Amino acid sequence: MPPAVPRGALTRVLTRGQIVAAAIFVAVTLGALYYVLPRVAGLDETWERISEGDPWWLAAAAGFELLSYGSYVVLFRRVFVRGRSRISWRASYQITMAGVAATRVFATAGAGGIVLTAWALRRSGMTRALVTSSMTTFIVLLYGVYMIALVVAGLGLASGLLAGGGSPAITLVPAVFAAVVIVAALAFGLIGRDAGRRGRGSPSRLGRWTAAALRAAAMVGAGVRGALAHARRGDPAILGAAGWWAFDIAVLWSCFHAFGTPPPVGVVVLGYFVGMTANTLPVPGGVGSVDGGMIGALIALGVDAGLAIVAVLSYRAFAFWLPTIPGVIAYLGLRRTVREWQASAA
Fold first, then answer.
1. Nearest-CA neighbor of 110 among 121, 100, 124, 96?
2. Is 20 helix (H, G, I), strand (E, B) or coil?
3. What are the C-alpha distances in Å from 158 to residues 215, 257, 345?
4. Structure confidence at residue 222 as a pLDDT band (50, 70, 90)
């Protein structure tokens, strides 16, 4: 018997009607991005530019994307695989790439990948508490690098220390927002584990809400302390988290090279991360929202509109579409791996 799929959100999304609706939405959005947008913007030569891209730089983009996912696997293993574990390198790859496929179905900052990863970890024999604490540490490590990069790139461009430019709305505001998030996360790290047990069993609604908020704060705090512990001992998990973002940005940078003269590195980095914030919108896989957000951010930073459109659309072909088929294959392999785990446990 095949293993049960994750409950909750994943099960609801994988209904036939919703999959068809998502497929129609993605098809319409792609048509708007690759056909309508260039013409509305007066950039009829966009398709010609795509067909004339430098093949060596495009090959480099594909290589950087492979390195990005390799870094993600390293991060996964350093956080989730401890001591003797059923999770081999092959299973780590399957969980990672299957999470990519699930993220394509889900919206809102990769929720599908998180649900599927938690399901696989539980099937491997990890306790619910360990999955929760490790997952929180994983997310803090991954998005901690994101926020630090926003601060560095935003302040660097706003102050003139980095080549490029842009108004304070596109440089300083994202940097300040990221700095506030970092300070808040560090403050959560001061919250002890005992805070999550306060107020449990309260008869009042306010008491239950307070208890739930304290549990969430304690969970985030544990994740922050776990991430800081990795950083203090120089764990390769830090390199994995940084590599995931850095190599993915290198894909965008290579696409700029393939179609013209790239903007300064600071502009590419900030435009990438500001555009990625659109991934929190309830759109399947961020299709359309991330593309548009990234293009808009780069144009606001002074990048030529035609070059920004062709580079971002090419980047998304590598970063979004290229890993999808391997992700589906990995998910099928993961189901077999989970069956093997269940058989050995029985």
1. 100
2. helix
3. 38, 25, 57
4. confident
CA atoms within 13 A on the CB side of 82: 9
Q: Which residues contact 74 (CB under 8 A, 6 or more apart)?
A: 236, 237, 239, 240, 243
Confidence band, pLDDT 50/70/90 cuts, at residue 126:
confident
Ramachandran bin of 192, using left for φ above 0, alpha for ψ from -120 to 50, beta for the remaining angles: beta
* pTM, to two decimals: 0.81
Domain ranges of the chain: 9-345
Give the whole-angstrom CA distance, residue 278 versus residue 143.
14
pLDDT, the chain, mean: 79
Residue with tokens 């208890």: 211
Are residues 219 and 191 in contact, defined by beta-carbon separation less than 8 angstroms? no
Residue indicated by tokens 């950087």: 64
Q: What is the mean pLDDT of residues 294-307?
A: 90
